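request received
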Amino acid sequence: MRVNGTAVTTPDPARRLLDFLRDDLGLIGAKEGCGMGECGACTVLVDGDPVCSCLVLVGQVAATDVVTVEGIGDDHRLHPVQEAFVDHYASQCGFCTPGVVVSVAGLLAKNPRPAEADVREALEGNLCRCTGYQAIFRAVASVAE
Amino acid sequence: MVELATPTTIEELRALAGSGRLIAGGTDILVQMRDGRDEPSLIDVSNIADGAPAVVITAGVAELSAMAPISAIVSGLAGRLPAVAASARLFGSLQIRNRATFGGNLANASPAADMVPPLVAAAAHVVVEGPGGSRQVPVAELATGPGRTALGPDEWISLIRVPLPEGEDGFLKLGGRSAMAISIVSLAWRWSRDEDGALRGVRLALGAVAPTVVRAPGAEAALEGRAPSDDVVVAAVEALRGDIAPIDDVRASAWYRREVAGDLLREALET
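response:
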């Protein structure tokens, strides 16, 4: 498996991907909200597709490329989605933000000019209880232009 | 301690089948395990379909891979099987559709399983594989009760064969919201219309109104051979409410389910 471009080994294939990322690799961007696929705070990209890392076992994705929020930009420059979230105040408490940002980055990689309906579909599995989503939609629209 | 086997070919799966519980996308099993269910041995089937097409169309039949993610089925359908595609698009969230499979939704045998009504309305079959070879089972006979199926412990679902519709087909679902909602009631239908507007070959299937997904024989008979005039629709809606056996649960009361099941049929006939 590659995580954010680096090859990693998986000692216990039955471990949840989320636990592997957070506890073994120290990538604590993905959060455990509900642990049952409802909230999307643990969203990561597996071969470019957003998935809930709390519902995937490491052994199931051993031959894939995993990208977390830590891997969408780099140490010196934010990803354009992250820049837009800063500019448009699209994050309040911030707990959902890594998952939302990863979902949006995954959408834009496949569809650089999404309609608002596409954005809503891409975020239907990401719960945000602070923003009411409007600032998030404005941020995404600013990147998609 | 959970053991996870990860076969990548059918031959490897055949050798392992029966030695543990099959896990595909895991979007249900991992939630059950989090709730305390003990699964000492899991056999992952999510890498077996890799590289194979999710959808193959041959001679009026769509063959859907049971082990491909639902999102791959939606893209592979490219507008065919409108009812299946409509249900698949409303399934969970994008994150769930990228992992969950048709085979898992069928084998899970939830009365509210959203992929099942369009398949039952379409008279679809599943291809079941096991040590002794393969057999075909009508989707309508696969679930025998909530969480129970006609599958043996060493069998798995490899394909779903769905006849392409000759007339109209569709799917409507009522849930708390459009994404991530377990159905309160779902309805799938198939019918054709002759030149006088009469409905022919009516097949209705409903989810979340009985222990398994069910047909609605009374409503089908009320519609068969008739144009859906106001009187016919009223009679069919009334018959449908008698066809189903819903329960009260956390999502809705039995009374409400009967009411809205009829409303879904009325809406289907008006579209």
